[in-house]
Amino acid sequence: MQALNSYLFEIKEWKRNYLITAPLAGRVALVSSIQENQQVKANQVLCYVNPNEIRYFAELTIPQNNFGKVFKGQMVLLKFPSYPFQEFGAVKATIDFISHIPTDSGYTARLSFESELNTTYGKKIQYREGLTASAEIITRNVRLLERFYYGIIKNINN
Question: Which one, 8, 93, 110, 156, has least CB within 10 Å?
Fold first, then answer.
């Protein structure tokens, strides 16, 4: 029995030292190319596992200016520099959390996507870790004529 336990322990140690395992199922994305017989260091990041069932979210910093107009549930349009707005459109998201404590740059908010990463033009954006975007929070739906009116009043007051 002792020999069997010793054998099982050796197998477990071999797996720990020589196999790469992930705690969840998904698609593997390599960080860099790996070749056969290439040595890797302990704790070196080799790849990421993107789960099959995934819900994307975005984090947004809302500055102090006009913060009083921003509420949970409002729609946000995200425009990605990697995917020009004029060609791809914007991705719609909804504010589902706003922090109660500000940071130096403003309040942190979390956005949830209405339809994965599909744009208003019906195109799908490829997710990449660290993808950045500019956000336009829709605080109030106004007609085009009202926008012109507010722009003219703002210029007159300045």
Answer: 156
- Write out pLDDT tens, residues 16-26: 888 888 888 88
pTM, to two decimals: 0.60
Element (H, E) at 112: strand 107-113
pLDDT (0 to 100) of residue 54? 67
Q: Which residues of the chain have pLDDT under 70?
A: 54, 142
Phi, psi (degrees; rounded to nearest 5) at 4 = -65, -45
d(CA 25, CA 47): 13
Q: How far, in Å, CA of 23 to CA of 38, rounded? A: 24
Say which residues have a Cβ less than 8 Å from residue 118's Cβ, sequence separation at least 6.
Answer: 91, 124, 125
Residues facing 109 on adjacent strands: 60, 98
**Cα torsion through 119, 123, 126, 131, rounded to 10:** -30
Q: What is the DSSP letter of 88?
A: H
C-alpha distances in Å from residue 120, one per residue of 76, 86, 102, 129, 137: 12, 11, 31, 22, 15
- Token pair listed for 88: 């791809």
Residue carrying the six token digits 């002792």 = 2
